[in-house]
Amino acid sequence: MKILAALLKYDYGIxxxxxxxxxxxxYLPLCDIYGKENVFLFDYIAVFKQSGKEGMxxxxxxxxxxxxxxxxxxxxxTDQFExxxxxxxxxxxxxxxxxxxxPWRKEFVRHWIKYFxxxxxxxxxxYQRYKLEGINNVIYSPFGFNKNVYKKLDLPVKYDVSFVGxxxxxxxxIMKNLxxxxxxxxxxxxxxxxxxxxxxxxxxxxxxxxxxINLNLSNAIYKDINFLFWSLKSLENIRQLAVLKKTKExxxxxxxxxxxxxxxxxxxxxxGLNTIYEIDREIAAYESIDKIPELIEFFLEDQEMRESIAxxxxxxxxxxxxxxxxxxxxxxxxxxxxxxN
Length: 341
Prior knowledge:
Blueprint: E1 3-6, H1 21-34, E2 39-42, H2 44-67, E3 71-74, H3 83-89, E4 94-98, H4 106-112, E5 118-121, H5 124-132, E6 138-140, E7 159-164, H6 169-180, E8 186-188, H7 201-209, E9 211-216, H8 225-231, H9 235-243, H10 253-260, E10 265-268, E11 284-286, H11 292-301, H12 303-320, H13 323-335
Parallel strand pairs: 1-2, 1-3, 3-4, 4-5, 5-6, 7-8, 7-9, 9-10, 10-11
């Protein structure tokens, strides 16, 4: 089976930042399943930069007409694709758009689903909502993790508490409060200021393996009045909040990745998380930010429970949540789709 994967090869299209999330967790798993020779990577941002929007879309159609892939999978960025080109591709290949953030990019999603045969959502409740609305060409496909990237390495513990992720005002607020409570967190990511660096994919896997507690923190809009007053003291926080469009959280790739490395995870709670991991048995979750210090203290003290949850989450991950399994199921559903899906 031939598959075309139209996605960003590099993180936000910037080669210096390394390979993108979708390259690691969509393109490479598809190659594992169907063979690299049968999966065509179309890095549309790179072509867009060279040839412009019209030239990129023209080249896309030429490749699909020439190779005739059974399935063409798209990961959208903004508006790089032309609607009439996407519509015409349905006559040549089965098209599916893979959405990452449809719980909060609703207007964006509702515009683009008209131009594809099928679309996916990683969110269980969004999937149910689409079905209730009579939108039947939706496929539920959680993120999962690339089993060849995220692994349990049995490395010695190096950090009590760690967090991997970019700065946001909410995450900054959480870190401020943790520091106030005497909780030391090793932070890795962009935007945190001097002394805190962005780490490579390999280094991130090491951190997940070497931490007693891996934090998974929300970066969505937060309406606490104390947080808002604190944010007003920083021009950068004001700027970020002014452009922030993420109105709600969702289950993310990070939920799968930490557990797949055998790491203990303390995450924000979101409806749907309990459909992929059993809370307090396979993952730990906080429902309010002010409970995080108390939970960190508890799980640092209770090594037996912490390690049991981490091991259970690891086993559930490798049994059910690999990106390879989810993507194979997605492709099979596209090829053999029926309205009873």
